[in-house]
Task: structure prediction
Amino acid sequence: MVNKTPIAVVWFKRDLRSSDHAALAAAVATGPPVLPLYIIEPDYWREPDTSTRQFEFIRESLVELREELAKLGQPLIVRQGGVVATLVRLNQRHKISALFAHEETGNDWTYARDKAVIAWVRKAAVPFSEFAQNGVIRRISTRDGWAARWDRTMAEPPTPVPVLRPLADAGIEIDIGQIPIAQDVGLADDFCPGRQTGGRREALIQLGKFLTVTGLPYRRAMSSPSEGALRCSRISAHLAYGTLSIREVTQAAIARLNELKGEPSPDAAQWRASMVSFLSRLHWRDHFMQKLEDQTSIEFQPLHPAMRGKQGILGTNEALAAWQTGTTGVPFVDACMRSLIQTGWLNFRMRAMLVSFASHLLDAPWRQSGLHLARQFTDYEPGIHWSQMQMQSGLTGINTIRIYNPIKQGLEHDADGAFIRKWVPELRDAPTAFLHDPWMDMGLIDTRPTNYPAPVIHVATAMRAARERLHAPRKTKAFHEASDAIQTKHGSRKAGLKQTDKIQFAKRQAAAAKRTAKIKTADVQIDLFRLLS
Result:
């Protein structure tokens, strides 16, 4: 039955909440009845960076969002199929007076879909309003002033929750639609027993617990995979799919920091340090997303031209498969990967170590390892993920190359071996002294486990080769000139000197050190800054 009563459609994407929702509030303010719409796109879920664990988190969030919106007056409408086809059908049965949505910095597939939607609304003469939901700025001309704009955006009052008029009150009868399960969109079963639960209720509980109970040692504990799982905020998936807005979280953390200023307890200083560190990471989150917003090719192509075609040449499929399944024979690497597979989450440092191991020590193709990790992360956020894949793989030309030693990381962040023993049960009975590199030492005491694989690489040898391979392209003037252009486009304005300036500064430091060595005596203090001036 056709009903041409005008409706304003709010297209939900990575913004599964009613609070601080600019698109929803703006649609309500226009006057016509509002149809809140979420479209499950089977083609998206066939992309190589998507997974069942992500879908299930979204599904749980949709169930709760439908309840939220029903209390406000109109439950969420869910459809399955292509976005343009769905909008065409709605416009035929009703009259879409306007379309409202939040901007999304997604993968290349969603970027193409968004362009198709824009083409359709222009052809159909449907007004389309998009709103920023974080600090990412669309069509930005320069990074100058970005940080100040981010601060201003986060300081703005959250958008109030609007009241919705039921569509039935306007004589519009519409099936709200079923929220499908993963198998309905062609997704396979996914063994992830420790996956976080979706929905705003869980998000608020987790945020409140972090700000008042678990976050005390956050600054110290975030580097440990075991402590990080308990002490980090654990709201990354909620930010990725928008059950919380980053402005809500930022303002809550600032409020907690202000509360702590007058707190006399012995723990107050540690709490304040943790809150400051947490706020800086919220800022960094949007900083990295801005990179993909500005240059979509980051998902596919190394940022620095000199690194294109230079990586993933020597690696083997067998070594990459071992890394993907947590069977490399390097215990701490395997423990981190197995933990990720079964929980959908891993702390930042260990994510970086996994990327470093694949890209540097195995010389695996960064795009291939990146797709595997994307599927494992419940909190997969394309802008952060692909920016970090490039950064940790040494492809940006503007960041320090970090080649993590997995044995050293294990000794530092799992000294007693509890994390390894939990996730690599083959080594449960191994002596702690030999736990982090059993292929080297356990043979000496004849207790090497027969069901744990030999290492796919020799760590020290692979690290030396990686250093030579990664630093070789950086010795040319052309490399650093290209790095300067990348820094201008993508770099933080707090990052300091350009690459060419850093080289000159380093040369001046070296010359100063030589002069100091010649004239320094036990009785004379040399002012390094005077020598450099």
User: Anything to note?
Assistant: DSSP finds 23 helices and five strands in the chain. The first strand starts at residue 6 and ends at 12.
